[in-house]
Structure formats: structure tokens, C-alpha cells
Write a structure and sequence with these properties.
single chain, alpha/beta, Rossmann fold, Elongation Factor Tu (Ef-tu), domain 3, 6 helices
Length: 310
């Protein structure tokens, strides 16, 4: 189990990818030299999960094992476009953040786990499995902030813990909002819980800020896009070929990982064709198309939820 060291060996300036924030002493005291396996960071929104996850990623002893970083927030993604979960491997021992190694991406189809908890679970499991197949033995999992027990957040986190079997859970609380999740885990031998304080610089981000962040992320992702015409009868469509204007879709490989995202610009139902705006320039490796529950305006790149009928 991880232990604390008497003297912090890393300073803020040594942690690439962490902006100028106040690092709590409890973070610096962590001895990361013995950490391995899946390391899950949990907390409500705006408590500093991502800041700590990046800090931890850089603190890991890269000489002992290959590192990977799993970005599990489809609404405020840091490693990929919104509506996705991404896992990226460190390229070498000195790799900064974001890591520059191989990346796997999974399409959730929404900016929120609400109504999409199964894709979040599937994505986390598939990404961790792919990383382990690539001999990545230490994974920092920066989870989403969906922890409200009244909305199912408790059950989502418990299911992730049961499925991924994390060696350590780093819990960051504003007050005691995670206690219903943590109390049984502290008594269990299946994992080890480490409670950490928030960074003093953690700030609440209101909905307009989050929407603008996603719009900027989509704009960057699609800035080098082109148009592809696709006959949907030539591909597997998940769950059904029910396309809507400006709908976000994923172009997937044979393993179910995302090769690229696309925005539906035109629909020709007579010839079963859609025109997609996408940064993917070839369909050679595309095995299937997965339609999402979000529309993205191709001019402003703001998203809105779709009420897609089955």
C-alpha cells in the first residue's frame, strides 16, 4: 500500500501539465514510488480531480512501469473531444502532460453520464483492457464528477470499482458528499482509500463556462476537417441508422474504438447517404458508425442534447 514520505521530493514547477496552483501539503507527502495498477481519482465537480490526477501522473515512478492516463469525463474532456473517453500512454519516462504515446478513444455519445452510464462503464473497461494489453501497468483514471446518489452516481462509481478493481482510490471531497460511497470501501480489503483535500485554487465552473469549454474543444477538433460522403448501407450502424442533422457520430474500428468523430451535415434518405464533416480523411479502417445523442452546430460548435427515438 502507498505510504507518505517525510520530505516532498517534487515541487510545483516540476509537475508539467499542472498550472500555477497551490498544491496542498497532503498531495506532496504522497509516496508515489510504490503505486501501480489502476489508480482512481473520484470527487464531485470542481474539487480539483484533474489537477491532482495530472500531478499524480507526473509523480509516478516511470522507471518501474509504463504509465497511462485515462480521461473519463465526456463533458469536460482533457485528452480528446467531448463525448469521448480517452486513454493515452506515456511515450517515455520524461513524458509531460498531455502524454504523447499511443491513444485509444471510446465514444460515449453524450456530454453527461446521465442516461449513458452503460457506455461510460463499457468505455472504462475497454480502455483499461487495451492499455493492459499494451503492457501499461499503471493507469491514472481521472473519473467524471457524477457522484450524486440521487441520480445514480453512487451506483456508477461502485460499478466502476467492481469492474476495474482499482488498487487505490484517491477521494477528494468538498464536504462529505462521498461518504456513502467511501464508508464501506474503507472497511473492505478490495481496495485502499486515500482521502485528500481540495486544492485551495479549485473553483466552481458554472454551466456557461462548461458549454464554452466544450465549444472550444469541438472547434479545435474539427478545425482541419473535410467532408466525407458515406453510404450507410455499407457500414454497421449502432444502434440504428437514424440520422439527424448536425448529429455527432463516431467512426469506429473493428475493436470498437473511435477513429474519428463526425458531424452530420446532410442526409440523403433516398440513396441512404450522409455527408459528414470529420477530421478523418479515409474510411479504410472504419468498421462501424455509432450515432450519438448530441448535436453540434458546425458554425458555433455549441452542443445540444438530441431526443433520439429508438
Amino acid at each position: 500500500m502507498p505510504k507518505t514520505s517525510k520530505n516532498a521530493t517534487f515541487t510545483l514547477n516540476q509537475i508539467s501539465g499542472v498550472n500555477a496552483v497551490d498544491i496542498p501539503a497532503e498531495w506532496e507527502k504522497l509516496d508515489a514510488s510504490e503505486l501501480s495498477g489502476t489508480l482512481m481519482v473520484v470527487g464531485a465537480p470542481d474539487v480539483g480531480k484533474t489537477t491532482f490526477a495530472r500531478y499524480l501522473f507526473k509523480r509516478l515512478d516511470a522507471g518501474k512501469s509504463r504509465r497511462g492516463y485515462l480521461d473519463g469525463d465526456p463533458g469536460q474532456s482533457s485528452l480528446g473531444p467531448p463525448c469521448t473517453m480517452s486513454l493515452t500512454a506515456a511515450k517515455d519516462e520524461n513524458d509531460a502532460f498531455p502524454p504523447a504515446g499511443e491513444t485509444w478513444r471510446y465514444f460515449v455519445g453524450s456530454v453527461s453520464p446521465t442516461g449513458h452510464m452503460l457506455p461510460v462503464l463499457t468505455g472504462a473497461a475497454r480502455l483499461v483492457a487495451a492499455a493492459k494489453e499494451a503492457a501499461i501497468s499503471t493507469i491514472v483514471y481521472d473519473t467524471n464528477g457524477f457522484v450524486d446518489p440521487g441520480l445514480g452516481g453512487f451506483y456508477l462509481k461502485m460499478a466502476e470499482i467492481d469492474l476495474l478493481k482499482p488498487q487505490v482510490i484517491f477521494a477528494i471531497q468538498r464536504q462529505q458528499e462521498l461518504e456513502s460511497l467511501l464508508i464501506p470501501l474503507r472497511r473492505s480489503k478490495r481496495t485502499h482509500v486515500i482521502d485528500l483535500p481540495m486544492s485551495p485554487d479549485a473553483q466552481r465552473r458554472e454551466r456557461p463556462f462548461r458549454q464554452e469549454y466544450r465549444a472550444q474543444s469541438f472547434a479545435r477538433y474539427f478545425q482541419s476537417s473535410a467532408f466525407l460522403r458515406i453510404n450507410w448501407r455499407s457500414f454497421v450502424i449502432f444502434p440504428t441508422p437514424h440520422f439527424m442533422l448536425h448529429q455527432l457520430v463516431a467512426l469506429e474500428d473493428a475493436r470498437g474504438f473511435t477513429l474519428g468523430l463526425g458531424i452530420v451535415e446532410e442526409i440523403d434518405r433516398i440513396f441512404s447517404q450522409v455527408y459528414l464533416r470529420t477530421p478523418l480523411h479515409s474510411l479504410d479502417e472504419v468498421d462501424a458508425i455509432r450515432v450519438g445523442d448530441v448535436a453540434v452546430d458546425p458554425e458555433t460548435f455549441r452542443d445540444r442534447r438530441l431526443n433520439r427515438k429508438s
